[in-house]
């Protein structure tokens, strides 16, 4: 469902045969697969070994006699992994992407902060060639994202102090938080990156039925903390209730969303 975002960024940066791309928090590899299909040499890093295995399967399946896949390297770990530095030593990256920057950079981990994310981003950006592009992306304004209400369910169940009416000094876990107007710019500034353009992309979330919607949202990992704090049955029940306003007469679930991206230069 984020394909429009990936395509918009790749088109703007002219990602192709001369591109050496590092995907931070690459997950199951869809963004890498799209970049590889455009001719880019890709490297992906993620802390979830199961999703990396799926990414490996996807990229291997793309290799056919008629259209050989470009070389790909997948690394288990974070942006500061020695393997990432080693890959950058072989050939500096021309593009670094963090399509879910705060979670991809570890700020969604217990005890982590946005400053930690900025440090990780700066370390990854150090592996780009001079003038290389670093792309950050995230949710748009809550009023433009129908899924925001569903994500707040996960935050509330995981940590009651994340409720909108609760005041706290430390920002809530970034894995679920929608991006404020200047969040991406703040993260870039902390990582000493220079903004060089931005954009917004419509990324609607559509599902065939309610069960598909619940399973799809759970698969993102954004509700893992909620399941640990309560129980899976309770989480599914409250997600279903939050989705009811978005279910149409034919049973499908449709949630318009807007994502925002920021292009920076190292």
Automatic annotation (TrEMBL):
Record's protein name: Methyltransferase type 11 domain-containing protein
Boundaries of every Methyltransferase type domain copy: 22-93
Pfam families, per database record: Methyltransf_11
Gene3D superfamilies linked to this entry: Vaccinia Virus protein VP39 (3.40.50.150)
Species of the source: Streptomyces javensis
């Amino acid at each position: 469902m984020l394909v429009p975002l990936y395509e918009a960024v790749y088109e703007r940066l002219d990602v192709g045969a001369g591109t050496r791309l590092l995907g931070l928090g690459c997950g199951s590899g869809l963004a890498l697969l799209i970049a590889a299909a455009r001719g880019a040499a890709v490297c992906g890093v993620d802390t979830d070994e199961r999703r990396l295995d799926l990414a490996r399967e996807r990229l291997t399946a793309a290799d056919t006699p008629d259209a050989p896949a470009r070389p790909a390297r997948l690394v288990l770990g974070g942006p500061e992994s020695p393997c990432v530095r080693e890959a950058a030593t072989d050939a500096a990256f021309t593009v670094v992407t963090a399509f879910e920057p705060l979670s991809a950079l570890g700020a969604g981990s217990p005890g982590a902060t946005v400053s930690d994310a900025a440090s990780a981003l700066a370390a990854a950006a150090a592996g780009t060639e001079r003038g290389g592009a670093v792309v950050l992306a995230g949710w748009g304004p809550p009023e433009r994202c129908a899924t925001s209400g569903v994500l707040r369910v996960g935050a509330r169940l995981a940590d009651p102090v994340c409720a909108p009416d609760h005041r706290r000094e430390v920002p809530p876990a970034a894995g679920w938080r929608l991006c404020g107007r200047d969040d991406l710019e703040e993260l870039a500034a902390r990582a000493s990156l220079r903004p060089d353009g931005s954009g917004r992309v419509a990324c609607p979330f559509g599902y065939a039925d309610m069960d598909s919607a619940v399973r799809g949202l759970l698969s993102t990992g954004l509700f893992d903390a909620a399941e640990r704090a309560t129980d899976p049955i309770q989480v599914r029940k409250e997600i279903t209730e939050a989705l009811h306003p978005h279910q149409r007469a034919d049973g499908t679930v449709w949630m318009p969303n807007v994502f925002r991206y920021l292009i920076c230069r190292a």
